[in-house]
Amino acid sequence: MSEDFQYSRLPLFATMELPSLGQTDIYVVHLKSKRPVTPENEDEKAKTLHESMREEIAGSWASAIQRGTEACQLMASIIERRSHTNNPAIVMGDFNDDIQSEVLRAFRHHGLRSITEDMVDVPLSHYQMHDSWDLYLKNIGETSIERPQTHYFHAKGSVIDYILLSNEFNSADPASLAEVGDFHCEDSHLINPKFDLDAYSSDHAIVSVTISLRR
């Protein structure tokens, strides 16, 4: 990463004292959109078709690089803090991409090329983040439920808003402290809007999870 790297929007970070869980690190993000990056010195002269295509291809790739770099930088910061505090971590917000995309691979880093003896004091899972939707399905023992969309563009839905949780919330891990008991996506203002109520609503659905202590 270049030394002059900057987030397109700075993540928000706070440490909260949660009942029974203690200090928990919470990150709120809005990663770079897929809108193509345009040159700062772009002039207003008419462009040919091939010039516009060339600029959009390059601009879309520049957006992906920025978004991926933001994901890498944030995950590196989360890992670093976890190594010092062991605090549970929650990351939520608008990721502007599919969490399974290569651009957001940093959030799914589940392996190392090599592990030496001096690394065995803490399991690799301690530094992994999990999609709360996956944790919810595993917790209720269901796999066939269709995931609700969180954003619509030209009537096409997609999932780009997530809540990621550290391993303390993974009920499949015997050492976990809590579990995801419910997953809710508030999208009535998108699929059945009422102008007098929803005229100034977000163009994203609101994702929320219910977390409870392990039974």
Quick structural summary:
With 215 residues, this protein is α+β, with helices and mostly antiparallel strands. The chain has helices at 49-85, 132-140, 188-191, 195-198, and strands spanning 12-18, 22-30, 89-94, 129-131, 151-153, 156-158, 161-166, 178-186, 206-213. The longest helix is centred in the first third of the chain and has 37 residues, at 49-85.
Helix and strand element order:
EEHEEHEEEEHHE
What is the domain tally? 1
Tally of contiguous helical segments: 4
Separation of the first and last Cα atoms: 43 Å
Please give the radius of gyration in angstroms. Answer: 20 Å
Query: What percentage of the residues does DSSP assign to strands (E)?
Result: 25-35%
Q: What's the overall average pLDDT, rounded?
A: 87
Q: Look at the structure and give the CATH class.
A: Alpha Beta
**CATH architectural designation:** 4-Layer Sandwich
Output the strand order for the largest sheet. Answer: 1-2-3-7-4
